Backbone:
């Protein structure tokens, strides 16, 4: 293995600020870099604001690499991979961290293959082996039924990190960022985006909601999502989510999909209604503080995950639950 | 337009929807097992990928070659792909393919794709139903130098390429890509169709084509466990203690109301 050092975080932007997952990555990167006695760097790709660069520095990045790309390339994976590869070539890091986000899921593996290196995707824990100094990467496999620790034989060591699996950390004192502008050859365009449709989600954003009420295949159709489940969520000022079958059936929009291949939520309270508790679904909500299950099958796996449960038909249980909550919360 | 030549990568995996409690790690400590009465399956997302190819074939014709890499693949599991309408099944099957990682899998599949020549599109699932990595399709694109569109929920043919509806956060975008290309498919595309009797009978008569590393022109040290770039240290199952408090009542409705009261008491709400 070549002698590469330092940790490089592939950051993502939310407007003029850093995305939440990027703050988690920087905190994790800061810890790994400290354990190795090395430095942390961050690369930001897009229309990068000074605020974002300063925030990356305040969160521990000794160097912030900026790859400016025009807005019309913002969704072109080819451009992002080229920018990431340029950052790696300049920074020569020993470790590269990306979010297991819609963007990171594509860029991480592509960058790894382009560099001839291995990547472990969807990691929930990363630590340095004190003996070898190598990165031990922990990821759930078999839909969350097991964890796998692996170590890369190649350099740099790449990992994509699951959202909300690690603490966000606090920015330290204002820091003037040491910004390095990357120049790289823009790849020729291969993909043409002809249309982009984003549904604005009303009410509380699912990922940030303190309380989430989710419906599964057992709710039987689209209607309960806008009535029974919505009523319960409204009383608790929460958001409505769904299992994959409910979304695949078109009962709920994809934006509500929670799980391994959907959104990751970690609310204070997660109420699973007519959801069996498959491990792939639990991957998206296992970080919740309290899980509550309502299911007509006493043997359903969800009762192994929940703190409180009611065995019964949700059509009977949920309206009464909502009504009593309304009384209690009015007091 | 000439006939579309499609390749679909399908992995045989343990049934991902088997009850969570039935997943057990074998004594070697790095292999997962299920009780022997639970049959393996074609990965869910690989089935959606196959469905994407079948729909293109329905609408404009073309041929579908299914590629599967592994060892001792169960014939009636993997031949389901023929029964639903794939034309040809190529198995990269050899003991040396065992314990592949994403790298050694993508590498061997890329050689197989080259050997197939003249394909227009390779479909993969967004992620395998066992390792959940989401790497192989992207790796194939990089190794073959092809453009890639991920998370397809709808695929149509256009002049010189494909038009794809790609799932993005809170919506979708329409992407046009020239062929040859790699496309990874997500669940919203829709379930794989059922096999009809005629298809099952036709599949029974077809024999899969078997390729070993030497057919791909590589040494067995470049594939499977020997070709890995990621070392497995340990696979393990964190223990969960069952501690659910079940709330009762005279009726389901009463139990629901009692749940609210209990949550208040416990200061959860
Ligand atoms: C690689 C991979 C990734 C996946 N990713 C995800 C993911 O991100 N998210 C996800 O959700 N799934 C995912 N899945 C699918 C997952 O394995 C399960 O199939 C899915 O979570 C099951 O959804 P469900 O619980 O809604 O449905 P089911 O498992 O069918 O459960 C329905 C439940 O409803 C109960 N019920 C029925 N009627 C009533 C009633 N009237 N009142 C009360 N209860 C009732 C039943 O007892 C049952 O427990 C993935 C699978 C794979 C292989
Ligand atoms: N052994 C295999 N044989 C055929 N296709 C595979 C194999 N492994 C992975 N794939 C394909 O690559 C996709 C992503 O797999 P993974 O990177 O393992 O998550 C799967 O959905 C399959 O389409």
Residues:
């Amino acid at each position: 293995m070549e002698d590469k050092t330092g940790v490089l975080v592939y950051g993502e932007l939310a407007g003029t600020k850093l995305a939440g997952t990027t703050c988690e990555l920087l905190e994790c990167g800061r810890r790994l870099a400290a354990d190795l006695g090395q430095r942390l760097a961050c690369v930001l790709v897009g229309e990068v604001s000074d605020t974002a660069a300063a925030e990356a520095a305040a969160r521990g990045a000794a160097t912030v690499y900026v790859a400016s790309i025009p807005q019309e390339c913002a969704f072109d994976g080819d451009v992002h991979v080229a920018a990431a590869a340029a950052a790696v070539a300049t920074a020569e890091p020993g470790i590269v961290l990306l979010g297991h986000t819609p963007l990171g899921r594509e860029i991480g593996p592509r960058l790894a293959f382009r560099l001839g290196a291995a990547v472990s995707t969807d990691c929930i824990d990363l630590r340095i082996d004190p003996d070898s100094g190598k990165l031990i990467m922990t990821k759930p496999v078999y839909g969350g039924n097991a964890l796998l620790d692996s170590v890369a034989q190649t350099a740099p060591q790449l990992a994509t990190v699951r959202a909300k699996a690690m603490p966000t950390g606090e920015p330290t004192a204002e820091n003037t960022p040491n910004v390095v502008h990357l120049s790289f050859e823009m790849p020729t365009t291969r993909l043409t985006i002809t249309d982009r449709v984003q549904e604005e989600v009303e009410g509380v954003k699912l990922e940030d909601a303190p309380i989430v009420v989710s419906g599964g295949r057992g709710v039987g159709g689209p209607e309960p999502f806008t009535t029974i489940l919505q009523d319960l969520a409204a009383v608790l000022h929460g958001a409505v989510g769904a299992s994959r079958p409910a979304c695949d059936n078109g009962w709920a929009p994809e934006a509500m999909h929670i799980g391994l291949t959907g959104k990751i939520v970690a609310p204070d309270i997660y109420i699973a209604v007519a959801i069996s508790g498959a491990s792939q679904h639990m991957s998206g909500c296992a970080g919740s503080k309290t899980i509550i299950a309502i299911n007509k099958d006493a043997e359903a796996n969800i009762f192994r995950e929940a703190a409180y449960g009611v065995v019964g038909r949700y059509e009977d249980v949920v309206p009464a639950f909502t009504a009593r909550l309304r009384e209690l919360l009015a007091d | 337009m000439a006939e579309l030549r499609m390749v679909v990568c399908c992995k045989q995996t343990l049934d991902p929807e088997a009850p969570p409690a039935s997943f057990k790690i074998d004594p070697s400590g790095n292999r997962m097992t299920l009780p022997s009465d639970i049959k393996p399956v074609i990965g869910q997302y690989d089935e959606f990928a196959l469905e994407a190819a079948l729909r293109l074939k329905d609408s404009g014709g073309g041929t579908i070659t299914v590629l599967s890499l592994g060892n001792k693949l169960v014939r009636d599991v993997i031949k389901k792909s023929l029964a639903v309408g794939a034309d040809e099944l190529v198995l990269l099957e050899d003991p040396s393919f065992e314990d592949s990682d994403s790298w050694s899998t993508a590498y061997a599949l890329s050689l197989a794709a080259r050997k197939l020549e003249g394909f227009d599109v390779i479909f993969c699932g967004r992620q395998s139903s066992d390792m959940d990595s989401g790497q192989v399709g992207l790796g194939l694109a990089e190794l073959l130098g092809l453009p890639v569109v991920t998370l397809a929920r709808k695929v149509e043919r256009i002049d010189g390429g494909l038009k794809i509806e790609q799932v993005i956060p809170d919506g979708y975008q329409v992407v046009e890509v020239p062929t040859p290309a790699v496309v990874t498919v997500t669940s919203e595309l829709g379930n794989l169709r059922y096999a009809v009797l005629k298809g099952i009978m036709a599949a029974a008569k077809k024999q899969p084509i078997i390729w070993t590393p030497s057919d791909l022109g590589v040494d067995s040290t470049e594939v499977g466990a020997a070709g890995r770039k990621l070392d497995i240290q340990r696979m393990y199952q964190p223990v969960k203690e069952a501690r659910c408090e079940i709330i009762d009542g005279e009726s389901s409705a009463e139990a629901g109301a009692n749940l609210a009261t209990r949550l208040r008491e416990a200061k959860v709400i």
Q: What stands out?
A: DSSP finds seven helices and 15 strands in chain B. Chain B has a mean pLDDT of 96. Residues 43 and 109 of chain B are 16 Å apart (CA to CA). Chain B touches chain A through 85 residues (CB under 8 Å).
